[in-house]
Amino acid sequence: MLVLPFTLGYLGGAAGTWLALRSRRAATPVVPLFLVLVLCVLFGTEDTAAVLLKSLFFVAVALWWIAIRAGENPAVDHAHRGAVARATVSAAVVGSVVVLATVAVGDVADRLVLRGMLGTGYDVGRLDNPLTDFGQFRDDDADKSMALKPLLTLRGLPRRVPIRFLVLDTYDGVEWSPGNDTVLGTREDRFQQLGERVGTSAVGREIAVRVDLRKLWNSDWLPLAGYLTSLDFDGPDARSPLADVRYNPATGSAAVAGELGRADDYRFTAVVPPTRLPRDAEPFAHPGDLQPEGEFLDDYLEPWRREPVTPIERVLLLAEYLKVTGYYSDGAAIGETEVPRGHSKEALAAFAFAPVGNDEQYAAFLALAANRLGVPARVVVGAYQGERRQVRAADVEAWVEVQIADGTWRVVPAHAFIGTQDPALAAQTPEEFLERKKKEREREEPEPEQEADRAADGDGDLGWVPAAGAGAALLLVAAVPLTKWLRRRRRRSRAGVAAVVGGWRELVDSARDLGYDVPVAAPRPDQARAWAGAEPAAVALAERTDALTFGPLAPDRAVTDDYWDRVRRERRLLAADRSALRRLRARWSLASLRGRGDRARRAGRPDRLRR
Questions:
Q1: What are phi and psi for residue 499, nearest 5 degrees?
Q2: Which residues contact 307 (CB under 8 A, 6 or more apart)?
Q3: What are the pLDDT digits (tens) for 135-164?
Q4: 398 within 8 A of 359, measured Cβ to Cβ
């Protein structure tokens, strides 16, 4: 596993060093390193984010090297000047271009990588199949205590996260089995050799787990949870080196070349993505029919296909039908219905009309039916840990995972479709079951007449919610202009000197809202020059304000009304000098609503001196 990266590193480093010593061209030593980067990308994973980070780091270091090396070129006078600035600016420009290009292109799911194009993947068809051999996890006449014996001991695995033995995603008419090149939307769906660190594009909860195998575990498959990020065999007598592991990144399944033994304890870290299946989810888009060997179920599934609901809801309705009309039986206990082993076409065709069996038949049937209903689905064999963090044979179950539009796989748990056979519903045909579910939906959804009556009576009417929201939004929009209007009315309603001072403050506030830089603590004539320059009318108004404010007699109502008329005209002249957009922004500007007293104190003089 390490031969290729070490070889590329040595060759690239040696070539770059030789060129750096022999060539005067600043960019020449970067060429072999760039080729190494390209090969690493081609042989790497499909994780676009990791490729972006590596590329940005390479660009930054390469440009820094080129800029510094160019500054040392004796053939160019003063080439060293500005080398750091050139390197920094070049790295910033090229890095920005790379980031913008990545954002524009988005997450390229079909980025070219050689990892999934070379070879055919490890042949797992000859390994054991825990689904076909599911009966080994249940009681038999020879040993009634088999189901209570532990298979694994887990440390660090959350209780609600299952340990998965194997994902089976191909149906050949005889059985479900794992395979290579079986997952839509990715090329990383082959069983390949892996190292201690594993790349994954999965997003979710990170876990660290230790697995202790017990003597009853005799499978070729490596129990895991989520999608691997690292794996290490740490048992003192471990017989299975990491080089013997073959891992499928698309399914999260791993096999070992040679059976695992009790001494092969191991640790792994992984990412566990969300697994809950929303009823309103859309299935992953796919070309053509899924699992064509399941065509024999199409006639049986016709009632479900006609149901006016989403494909995911059809699958969930079928799961519920199996649960209420089916019967769980291993065929091992005395008096139980004998169930033939396997899930071939013949077995599943019989199961469709008489759902009797164990996890093997139920999961195999539902996954195949889901595919034929247009929803990508697969079977998973695994378990949830029980007491003392152990997994016993009785804890093993099979469930179904379906792929939704975002590419993630969501779980249909075993308890959602394993038969419990409600005696009152066991004899229902699919048509009768679907008709009953249709009536239940109609009872839950009120008729239009009921909605109209409810609206008329005001019972449960929530029509006020949008209106209240619109009213609150309108109030927020109108709050600033309304506050300014009330302030202007309050200032003009005052008498004597207070009305004059209020008028001038209104003029200054209008200028500030329009974007003029008015000195708060300056004399009034200087304030007028801030927006009017040498315009005599504005300066004259400022001097008139000082005369009325500090004069011996208080101005009467006629004088203050005339003063406010002059303020109004000056405000119009202020606005006329600004663009329409600036005038519109001024209506909602908060510049004039900030505290005047604080600004006066910051200017070093009390507010009362500005009268």
A1: -70, -35
A2: 313, 314, 317, 434
A3: 888 755 445 566 778 899 999 999 899 999
A4: yes
